[in-house]
Amino acid sequence: MTLKINPKDHLDRRTLLKGLGAVTAATIALPHAARARGAKTIKIGVISPMTGPLSLFGETDEYTTAKIMELVADGIEVNGETYNIEILLRDAQSNPNRAAELAGDLILNDEVALMLPASTTDINNPTADQCELYGVPCISSNSPWQAFVMPRGGGEAPFNWTYHFFWGLEDVLGTFTGMWKSIETNGKVGMLFPRNADGETWGNEDYGLPPAVRDAGFEAFAPSMFEPRTNDFSAQISTFKANDCEIVGGITYVADLKTFITQCKQQNYTPKVVTVAAALLFPSGIEAMGELGEGMSSEVWWTPAFPYTSSLTGQTSQEIADIWEAETGKQWTQPLGYSHALWEVILDTLKRSSDPLDREANRDALAATNLETLVGHISFADGPHPNVCKTPIFGGQWVEGETWPFDLKIVDNSLYPDVLEPDAQMKPLDWS
């Protein structure tokens, strides 16, 4: 079961310090390749799910952090003065409560100047809550902006310290329905949501996918949420079969989707379309489903085809992906672009700060961000929320690959037609 914390709760200083012995295990402080003598040091905290069920979302974080350390090995110059950079990378082990403890440790003991939670809602939100409580600037991504804002009470008032860039549920809906409309179906959608922070946001009947899917002209059937890591999807499959749902949409993680798809095949439930966020982002997730992975569809955050370049290195998205594949022996993965872009924002913030050792100065610089990055333009001036910037999203389908077992093809660009052209047409699933 996924652990959760109440966004209104926080760890007080005494509780945090009593638990620090447990927190220090499985943490990483990356060494400096070089240091500027006599220079002051800026500490940056990074919290990532490098192990556990969310580890695919953290897969690129240690790699990218090492690349950044090479880039800033001799420090950075701010207002004519050189500062060393120290990055404190911590493994949250895919546990929200642990993320909160690690954040408190980095804030109270290491006195970080900036915080970067690099993951999904379960890691971003508890980290951001601690930053908001103790007054530390924080930049995050990789979850819909509603999942960052709404559970934390941001619908009533802007946050003071925490900022986020990504797309929203309204965007993923437009992308999902864009793909669904390209396939002949009966318009009936079975909704699949886990009982965790992501599932409760995506499945929300006020601002989540079910009401929006209905508003888009589809019928939505949302049975009870499933417990993460369950081994029985009979209730959900029964509901979908009873209502003749030819489309399945929602959000799951890899292990759960594999179980669901396997049981669909066993119970002779063969929808024409399965479009699921999170689990279908990763090549390894598709490969885990074997032949059943071909034809699955998902939102696309970032691909090597993105027409943007890094403000740090001048590299294109394709070059970043090629280097990853050459150095790791693994296929490119969507969080790679955002792992890089988060550092673009952090280093740009520090270079514009009136005092990079002062949290309030860094917060003001972060709020004023106006930067072209590997995932597009980042500015908090025109977002749907004062602390949010939206980035592009596309629809993709996994097909048999050439170099790798599967390739992700863009099949829908309805929200951002000027950024990318589709490179394939959506096809219905083949369950034979």
How would you sum up this structure, described in words?
It is a single chain. This protein is α/β, with parallel strands linked by helices and 432 residues long. It is 34% helix and 20% strand. Strands 1, 2, 3, 4 and 5 form a five-stranded mixed β-sheet that branches. A four-stranded parallel β-sheet has the order 9-8-10-11, sandwiched between helices. Helix 4 (61-71) runs parallel beside helix 15 (335-352), helix 5 (96-108) runs parallel beside helix 6 (121-134) and helix 15 crosses helix 16 (359-367). The two termini are 33 Å apart. Mean pLDDT is 90; it is low at 1-34.
Task: Please outline the helices and strands.
Layout: H1 13-18, H2 20-23, E1 27-29, E2 40-48, H3 55-58, H4 61-71, E3 76-78, E4 81-91, H5 96-108, E5 114-117, H6 121-134, E6 138-140, H7 145-149, E7 162-165, H8 169-180, E8 188-192, H9 197-202, H10 209-215, E9 219-221, H11 234-242, E10 247-252, H12 254-266, E11 273-278, H13 283-288, E12 297-300, H14 317-328, H15 335-352, H16 359-367, E13 370-373, E14 376-379, E15 388-389, E16 394-400, E17 406-412
Parallel strand pairs: 2-4, 2-5, 6-7, 7-15, 8-9, 8-10, 10-11
Antiparallel strand pairs: 1-4, 3-4, 12-16, 13-14, 16-17
Helix pairs in contact: 4-15, 5-6, 15-16
Describe what is shown at a glance:
The protein is α/β, with parallel strands linked by helices and 432 residues long. It is built from 16 helices and 17 strands.
